[in-house]
Amino acid sequence: MAAFTSIPTLEGDARFDVYVARPEGAPKAAIVVIQEIFGVNEGIRRKCDSWAAAGYLAMAPDLFWREKPHVELDADIGDELQAAFGHMQKFNQDQGIRDIEATIKAARAELGQGGKVGLVGYCLGGRLAFMSACRTDGDAFVAYYGVGIDGLLNEQHAIGKPVLLHVPTADGFVPPDVQRRMHEGLKDNRHVTLHDYEGLDHGFAAEMGARRNEAAAQLADGRTADFFAAHL
Q1: Closest among 2, 121, 113 to 56, alpha carbons compared
Q2: How far, in Å, CA of 69 to CA of 17, rounded?
Q3: Residue 196 annotated in active site
Q4: Which of 25, 47, 51, 86 falls 20 to 30 Å from 226 in CA-CA distance?
Q5: Annotated catalytic, 195?
Q6: What are the CA-CA distances from residue 112 to residues 26, 52, 57, 228 (Å)?
Q7: Residue 17 and residue 103: Cα distance in Å, rounded?
Q8: Considering 166, 202, 226, 231, which one is annotated as catalytic?
Q9: Is 201 buried (19+), middle (13-18) or exposed (0-12) by CB count in 10 A?
Q10: Any alpha helices (H) in 136-194, and if so which ranges?
């Protein structure tokens, strides 16, 4: 069963929509799926549905809601790609983390006492997943092709739970020098594991579209599934 529902902000002064996919029977844990710059589109909803089929409560918050609710864009359509960049530029990431925190809170309320919550994000969502590892009380964090993580290294001291990063080496939005700084900066952090994907570009694990590399997506998604099984 899957549908959009609304949850309150942390401050309780507004509500925003979250796509929720529930498993059959009691969920074994929850996973917050953090969108790319394309909104909670069909690809993100499919990822939630897949986690629900695997027995998890899956929730994808609509993070662009303050500017425009229910953004849903396609990376393979030029005008929509440009619109996505526009939304990203206007997006307040600190507020976004607060909304992710509110989603974690809502997930725990549904799971009940002792319920664990993992987070997985893609592109902008990958960056936000890393930020969440530094700033929220989630239980496990996965970032696919996170952008600008090298600029967040000064926050890594706050990481206390497991973090998994999927890094395509030919990422057009994360140049080699940025990747080197990320690897070097995180190599001594016992909570963080990085996997490189040689010769692959940004978006290789997209659920659909021209960016997807089937073999690499299955490899990365399998590692993510094992990671959550171990830590949630």
Answers
A1: 2
A2: 8
A3: no
A4: 25
A5: no
A6: 11, 17, 12, 19
A7: 10
A8: 202
A9: middle
A10: 176-186
Q: Is the pLDDT of residue 206 over 90?
A: yes
End-to-end Cα distance, the chain: 22
Q: Report the sign of the C-alpha dihedral through residues 105, 110, 113, 114, in that order.
A: negative
pTM exceeding the 0.85 threshold for the entire prediction? yes
Q: Which of the following is catalytic: 99, 139, 150, 171?
A: 171
Distances (CA, A) of 196 to 117, 165, 168, 183, 203: 25, 8, 6, 10, 14
Phi-psi region of 78 (alpha: psi -120 to 50; beta: other; left: phi over 0): alpha
What residues does 31 pair with on adjacent strands?
A: 58, 118
> Which tens digits make up the pLDDT trace of 150-205?
999 999 999 999 999 999 999 999 999 999 999 999 999 999 999 999 999 999 99
- What six digits make up the tokens of 207? 């659920």
The secondary structure element, H or E, covering residue 85 is helix 78-90
| Count of residues in the chain | 232
DSSP 8-state class, residue 16? E
Strand order, beta sheet including 30-34: 2-8, 15-21, 57-61, 30-34, 117-122, 140-144, 163-168, 192-197
Average per-residue pLDDT for the chain: 97
Instruction: Tell me the helix, strand and coil percentages in the chain, rounded to 5.
Output: 40, 20, 40
Identify which of 116, 158, 172, 164 has the alpha carbon closest to the alpha carbon of residue 141: 164
